[in-house]
Description:
- By secondary structure, this protein is an alpha/beta fold.
- The protein has a single domain (6-187), classed as Rossmann fold (3-Layer(aba) Sandwich), CATH 3.40.50.
- Helix content is 37%, strand content 21%.
- α1 (26-38) packs across α5 (157-180), α2 (73-83) crosses α3 and α5 runs antiparallel to α6 (182-189).
- The chain is globular, with a radius of gyration of 15 Å.
Amino acid sequence: MSENRIWLVAGLGNPEPRYEMTRHNAGFMALDLMAKQEGADFRNSRLSSVAKICREGGIKIFLNKPLTYMNSSGASVQSMLSYYDIDPCRLIVVHDDMDLEVGRVKVKMGGSAAGHNGIKSIDSSLQTPSYYRVRIGIGRPGRPGGYIPWVLGKFSPEEREKMEEGEKKAIEAVNSIISEGLSKTQEKFNAR
Length: 192
């Protein structure tokens, strides 16, 4: 059980309406669902769209959707951590991952950005890769070289069903990290 009382959960995506429901916005979609489940509303600030959740025991969870676009997500995340005096060890980033099949969720602490520009931006802004990551699978394109159109493309109806389950699992993983820690969360979500 965590003794920390304030957490930042950042969902990665792009803020314009044309990017809604695209693969790269998996983090935004998961946070939208979490806010809806908790009855929280997002409000825009300078760099972020933020919602606040208060839990039993004085735990506060800030949900952050950067308004700075994917490749500059680090500025928004760093700003939120600084403003609320949150250590990066209490940061959970929810993002898309092409190395996982659609809707699959895996959890880790730190590690490589694996080519994800949002993660690269956060690593650079924080000067550390040591924060929690909840990765939601979006699969890979069927042909090589089509990564940008793939991540900015919309889900097929079949993929959307799998993603809805993935978003729910991502929220469960976030809650598990906060309440049970990394090891137990990885046991639940990383095992096949």
